Amino acid sequence: MKNILVTGGAGYIGSHVAKKLAEAGFNVIVLDNLSKGHREAVLKGKLIVGDLADVDLLDRIMKEEGIEGVIHLAADSLVGESMEKPGKYYRNNVANGINLLEAMVNNGVEYIVFSSTAAVYGEPEEIPITESHPANPENTYGESKLFFEKILKRYDEIYNLRYVSLRYFNAAGADLSGQIGEAHDPETHLIPIVLEKALGVREKLYIFGADYPTKDGTCIRDYIHVEDLADAHILAIEALAAGLESRIYNLGNGEGYSVREVIEAAEEVTGKKIEAEIAGRRAGDPAVLVASSEKIKKELGWKPLYPDLKTIIESAWRWHKGGGFDGND
Ligand code: UDP
Question: How do residues 316-325 score in pLDDT, each as one tens digit?
């Protein structure tokens, strides 16, 4: 059984990855500082509460847990915040990530799956976006992830540290068992916000910009079920363990939905009228982001099992109606 370190494994995507990884027979060690993660989200494996800034801790974990591979999701991930506090993003997503790579190299850990983002592309020149599309991030978050991808490339050249970088489009939905789901505080993501409005626990829902050059003026995104996203991590770590060379994959459904379409789908799922107000654009938001995920389908045999937007929203709705987690950790 392989020992895999999952950084950020108490967070939204990380907790789904850790669960699936354990189910696939890996020994899972989660490292999370619980700044945004939840203790209850770690259903399987061991949780170590700590930070990527702690170089000694990273070294100890690699040694004591006999880590063979890493899935690195610990990061700050809010586009809006990244345009207000760029230093936080460069420090946590780039500088502290280097601590992790150094600990890996020093302890002979050979491969890593990195959680990257569609935000590396910036305003797309063509849709759907393939991995060879130029990367010109419009926000600090995307730029911090692109920097780290470049660092990974260098570490591969110099130390043979192999990586798979997964460029996520919009992760959404909740684990179908209903045990874990999306719970950020404050919440900034569209689908949970729309559902909170439907539940009556949120007073206002704002559409950030209705003057984009899209069919209804609102931003278009490619929403992918968090379970499908998690599956790709398992495929990637298995492929790396079997010797796969470094590469980058997009992860999305290949279908774009506007903010208005998401609200309409949520109205159908919840059976409630969901009122929204038009507000100004959010800094750093490209008009359209839709993925081509043909490469990972072809090379690793990945296939989204829940591509339908309503199925995604239904799983999130079950989770939100159930009340989510109790506290912040
Ligand atoms: N959005 C919105 N109102 C909200 C939250 C998000 O109109 O309260 C929009 C946002 O501008 C973007 C889309 O919904 O176009 C998805 O945003 P989210 O924050 O969920 O994900 P991101 O695309 O930033 O990763």
Answer: 999 998 888 7
260, 216 contact by CB (below 8 A): yes
- Which amino acid, residue 1? M
Structure tokens at 177: 């068992």
Which amino acid would we find at residue 24? A
Most distant pair of Cα atoms in the chain: their distance: 56
- Asked if 267 and 195 touch (Cβ cutoff 8 Å), the reply is no
The span from the CA of 127 to the CA of 290, in Å, is 6
Regarding the beta carbon of 81 and ligand 1, being less than 6 Å apart is answered: no
d(CA 98, CA 104): 10
Of 182, 220, 262, 282, the one to substitute when testing ligand 1's pocket (max ligand atoms within 8 A of C-beta) is 282
Task: Name the residue at shortest CA distance from atom 4 of ligand 1.
Answer: 190
- Name the 3-class secondary structure at 154: helix
The separation between CA 200 and the C-alpha centre of its own chain, rounded to angstroms, equals 27
**Which two tokens mark 79?**
């586009």
Q: Which residues of 51-81 are buried (b: 16+ CB within 10 A; e: fewer)?
A: bbeeeebbbebbeebebbbbbbbbbbbbbeb
- From the CA of 117, give the closest atom in ligand 1: 25
Q: Which amino acid is at 106?
A: N
Q: Tell if the pTM clears 0.90, that is, is over it.
A: yes
Which residues are catalytic, by number? 141
DSSP per position, 242-298: TTPPPEEEEES-S--EEHHHHHHHHHHHHTS----EEEPPPTT--SEE-B--HHHHH
CA nearest neighbour of 117 among 100, 101, 105, 129 = 129
Question: Residues 101-159: pLDDT tens digits?
Answer: 999 999 999 999 999 999 999 999 999 999 999 999 999 999 999 999 999 999 999 99
